[in-house]
């Protein structure tokens, strides 16, 4: 209910406030609603908003300005609080009858700090309305404790202690420098240093800033703004109380040159787990980024201290470096080279030139991606030809070198064979061999002359009798289906291909045949008794005929 000592006409309305905010729709002199412990309510007559009522609280409470403060030995601290209570309890106005600070209890009752012999002559408490302070002078290490405020009212149950209280630490405030970097634009940045304590400093104090051990003049505030920061500089702060410098923070500085380590150490095998770590002495602690150099391109890999490969590959070989960065600067590590070892990949094989002619120089080449570099062995079939090199050279290749070849690539991590490579040596025909079948040739029989020559590509054959060509073609055979005596003679064959021509040795065909009709001669043609007369009988035959003379009827 909003009460006024003056009588107001009925037409006047009211304004209600909750925690300083106007409550809409509430115009009567009474207001009902839901309140929490921290709510404070006041009212005013509409039109007289400049003269609101005092705010009232609905709960008991003590609020401390800070719940954790610190002070140095021999200094002075001031602890602040405010308290609240219901303005009426059981329709009786509340009145505070006592208020004090305490640390200890006596006979289970809080002992007023002013009556505590440990604080005699060193403490003073003051209140202004609902706000109170406790001042402790000439701090001692034994003063480190929890300080609580208690107030007592006229109500039987109206006693309240603010708990938890304020923790006072009489010790080193553990100063530290916080760093905040801000970017003004793409060309300008500034860095702000703040000297902070792990608790609120209660003493009247100022700050001293140091740069590389030298005091920075005219910088006496908690904040120190740097312009054009040099990453080689180190800064720290201290506090000054009653003209005396006390306590110093650890220095802050940009990262030193990062150190890089690789695990496992030694050789790195493909498929293994590898971790690279980056560390740098820096304050504030550095943030790390890993890069891989790739010509002019240096891709950013990870933004963390470690770069890990669960199964490293040959493509991961290369030069890496890390950067360490904090708000005060950025430093890059030295380059570290990662050389991934792996067994040979399937070899590729080639032959040069592609067309191979007997007598020419021919090179077989075998290559395989391997680390360390592979050693090569060439094989023809299962016979080793050359070991150690990836090339095998025929300075003057022959037809005997024709065949299938493969190479073996090997290093300490594995061995693998290539696919086969067929070497097809081209050469002119060798001296043809000739034969006749059957060996005994009888007139009227079938007779075959055969000519063959080793050559690549296959030869074409031509048979000759004397200088007369008989047959030409890829087949080296010449057949007499019914040989006659006229076919007797000397024959040879010619074998030829793109690379040359050669003649065989001659072969004599001797056709055997029965005697032809004999011819009979008498000499002289005029025969006189008593003279010499010769009878001659001759017949064409092979072999030569034997002759027998007969006289008719005898």
From TrEMBL:
Residues 173-240, 255-337, 347-422, 432-508, 518-554 form the Ig-like domain. InterPro entries: Ig-like_dom (IPR007110), Ig-like_dom_sf (IPR036179), Ig-like_fold (IPR013783), Ig_sub (IPR003599), Ig_sub2 (IPR003598). Pfam families: Ig_2, Ig_3. It comes from the Eukaryota. The lineage of its organism: Eukaryota, Metazoa, Chordata, Craniata, Vertebrata. It comes from Anabas testudineus (Climbing perch). This is Ig-like domain-containing protein.
